[in-house]
Structure to design on (288 residues):
């Protein structure tokens, strides 16, 4: 965390006053990976470097030991893990040498909010036009959509827990929106 | 509001997309060989179809892919969406003289 720890997101100014059920997570390693899916050497190399079989099904998450991979588009994934991104970037670069790929450390791009508790999906439902009903959206799913008109990635990490990745420059606005959206449900027991 | 069927992400709300105008307009192989009239025709001239219309959409807030949609310009009925390079779906019979 050495590199990221002095770095404060705009949401940090209001994060102390977030109601129960909403927290801003500490910065994580976020690495954007692009490559050609049809080349089997690409998938194999990523598996070697991270232990993850990249999800091919749109809007799914694959979890490995240290990292997870979110499907972003047919040739693009977001790898997320604890700590610094440098080690992961180097491992991927070594494994993918000579291949047509792009590996970028985007850890500072997005702030991560965790929304948890029984009303998490209600808050998302009223903040977005995407259908967050449990029938449609379940743990292991992720989606890129608009949350309160701001582009976001939403990942369901547990039965009642969501991670919301928003652009850092929008994080104060989205954080305030989510806090306000939670207010009508009162403090969860 | 439209529900557009992204070929990758499935049905999503119109606000996630960006419109890209008429589909299937091929860029001339050698623009330098065209005269001004032909170049202007490629750049600016578009059909103003009343009826089923092939158009491009970008899933700008989702997977950021361009794809094609067949939409009826009067009723907004969407017949189908297909990836770039794929064949368009079969059109229903035009109703009420709209073509």
């Amino acid at each position: 965390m050495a590199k990221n720890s002095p770095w404060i997101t705009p949401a940090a100014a209001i994060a102390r006053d977030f109601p129960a059920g909403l927290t801003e997570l500490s910065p994580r390693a976020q690495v954007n990976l692009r490559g050609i899916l049809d080349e089997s050497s690409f998938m194999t190399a990523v598996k070697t470097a991270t232990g993850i079989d990249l999800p091919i099904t749109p809007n799914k998450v694959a979890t490995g030991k240290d990292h997870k991979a979110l499907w972003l588009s047919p040739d693009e994934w977001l790898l997320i893990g604890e700590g610094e991104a440098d080690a992961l970037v180097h491992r991927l670069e070594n494994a993918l040498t000579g291949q047509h790929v792009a590996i970028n450390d985007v850890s500072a791009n997005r702030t991560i909010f965790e929304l948890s508790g029984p009303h998490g999906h209600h808050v998302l439902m009223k903040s977005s036009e995407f259908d967050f009903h449990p029938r449609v959206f379940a743990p292991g799913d992720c989606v890129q959509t608009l949350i309160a008109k701001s582009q976001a990635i939403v990942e369901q990490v547990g039965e009642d827990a969501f991670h919301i990745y928003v652009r850092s420059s929008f994080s104060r606005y989205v954080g305030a929106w989510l806090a306000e959206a939670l207010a009508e449900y009162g403090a969860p027991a | 509001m439209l529900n557009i069927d992204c070929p990758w992400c499935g049905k999503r709300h119109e606000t996630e997309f960006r419109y890209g105008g008429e589909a299937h307009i091929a860029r001339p192989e050698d623009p330098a060989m065209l005269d001004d009239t032909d170049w202007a025709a490629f750049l600016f001239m578009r059909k103003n179809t009343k009826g089923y219309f092939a158009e491009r959409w970008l899933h700008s807030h989702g997977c950021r892919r361009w794809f094609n949609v067949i939409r009826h310009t009067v009723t907004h009925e969407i017949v189908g969406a297909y990836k770039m390079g794929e064949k368009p779906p079969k059109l229903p019979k035009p109703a009420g003289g709209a073509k």
The beta strands of chain B are 3-6, 10-13, 18-22, 52-58, 66-72, 78-83. The first strand of chain B starts at residue 3 and ends at 6.
